[in-house]
Amino acid sequence: MNKFIKNFFWFLLYLLVAAFVLIPLLWMLKMALTPTGELSFIPKSFTLNNFKGILTRKEILVYFFNSVKISLSVIIVTVPIAMIAAFSLARFNFKGREPMAVSLLILPMLPATAILVPLVSYFNKLHLYNTLTSVVIVQIVFNLPLCTWMLRNFIMNVPRAVEEAAYLDGLGHIRTLFRITLPSIRPGLVAVMIYIFIGCWNGYTFSYALTTSPDKRVLAQGVLAFLGAWGNDWGGLNAVGILMVLPPILVFLVFQKSFVAGMFGQSLK
């Protein structure tokens, strides 16, 4: 009886957590698929006009592709740098290695809003203000420490004997990293890439501070920008919200197995 009560309690807790997470998403989907003005809990009719309306607006597509450009650019630049830095921290002994590793956890905790003014001044002097390049650079800087820490931990779980055997076969450090270590930590690498993508895709603060032109906005800015412009067009606004949350969900579903394995330090078989 006690076991039944305990299981029922955990089931109820999981159900409440799931409801807390899913109900806002389901309501947003419902609003996006129903005609404007219908507020009934159970929809009487469905329509795709809200999605057609936003997809025909040029600015929404510009915001969407700006978010894609920033996210992919940050992944392409950050991951190789983090890989080499993580390999050095995990495998080489040098003075200050441990304090440097600890600092990788401290740096991401710094509040981004505290340095926005210096960042704006700095990029203005470099003539990079109001460009997507400035947003990419800042996202790389803020993602690099934690990504390096994560990859360092993954590399430390790879047996040294495998890499030492590669050294005996004549492979250097770089070739060993890409031929031996990298395939061994593939799930962790996928987890880091998904982490970067979701963080950049949802990023609002840096884009808002470092860009002013409408054609430089990202999708997160676009949602708020259209809040006043669209007035009471709740269907269109919720359709933009669906467009905002859909890519991270699809990325997670496609790479779910690798992501979970990487986050929990498991290997794929």
What this model shows, in words?
The chain has 269 residues and is an all-alpha fold. The protein folds into two domains: 1-47, no CATH class; 56-263, MetI-like fold. 75% of the residues lie in helices and 0% in strands. The chain contains 13 helices and no strands. It starts with a helix and ends in a 6-residue tail after the last helix.
Give me a quick take on this structure:
The chain is an all-alpha fold. It has helices at residues 2-33, 49-55, 58-91, 97-106, 116-125, 132-156, 160-168, 173-184, 186-201, 205-210, 219-229, 234-254, 256-263.
Question: What descriptors fit this protein?
Answer:
269 residues; mainly alpha; MetI-like fold; 2 domains
Beta fraction: under 5%
The level-1 CATH class of the largest domain: Mainly Alpha
CATH topology of the largest domain: MetI-like fold
Q: Considering DSSP H and I runs of 4 or more, what fraction of the residues is helical?
A: over 70%
On the 0 to 100 scale, the average pLDDT is 81
Total number of beta strands: 0
Q: Please tally the helical runs, counting DSSP H or I stretches of 4 or more residues.
A: 13
